[in-house]
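Agenda item 2: cytidine-5'-triphosphate complex prediction
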Amino acid sequence: ASSNTSIDDLTGETILITAGGTREAIDPVRFIGNRSSGRMGFAIAEAARRRGARVILIAAPTAIAPPAGCEVVCVTSAAEMQAAALKHLHEATIVIMAAAVSDYTVKAATQKLKRDQSRILELEPTTDILRELSTRRNPGTLVIGFAAETEDLLANGRAKLERKSIDAIVVNDVSSPNLGFDSQNNAGTILTKATEVAIPPTTKAAMAERILDEIKKLRTQPNS
Ligand code: CTP
Ligand code: CA
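Presented output:
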């Protein structure tokens, strides 16, 4: 079934959504970041609000302003996102992890690095927030992740679905130009344990509705 945006079918749900791209400081003025604009996460937040959900939006830096009506928590680093997400986890009936989270944090310098200093950055792995949220969730809470891939999309997506013990994963091909990062449009495949739903190239707003439709199906058909 296609989305029906006139129905408040998410009334009663509290959806915790992460969006944007985390930043890891290198020194007081520099960071390691990524190309996430926050548009996909914000589109899901906006659609979820319109469909009647309470939305807790944990936003790392983004290129755009968050949609109205959401409870916005601003964070910068992966560690801050982890803390904010854990703080609000037990209010959530659905968790959607759309943020692009750094896999590594940096041992940051306390003073601004000089041109002739430190060409080697000391990296430490960050926590897999999605996996931690899935492990610590309340019974009945649905957890959905994203995977931005450049190759072997479906196999990589299925592996992450398993490894992170989540209910669904939205896989996008970020190697295609004009889609995904920095774009108004997106395409992908929503994988659950039993299903595979392709979403052809469309606006992030329309893709958000499709993603929420699939989550709604998981609620009503929990064995999919
Ligand atoms: N994610 C997370 N915490 C991290 C890294 C990723 O919660 N430290 C989440 C992302 O928000 C996304 C999902 O995990 O919803 C998949 O992210 P991805 O980078 O594709 O997976 P990784 O497990 O980091 O694997 P890799 O980068 O090696 O492909
Ligand atoms: Ca990663």
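Discussion summary: The chain has five helices and twelve strands.
Owner for follow-up: CH.
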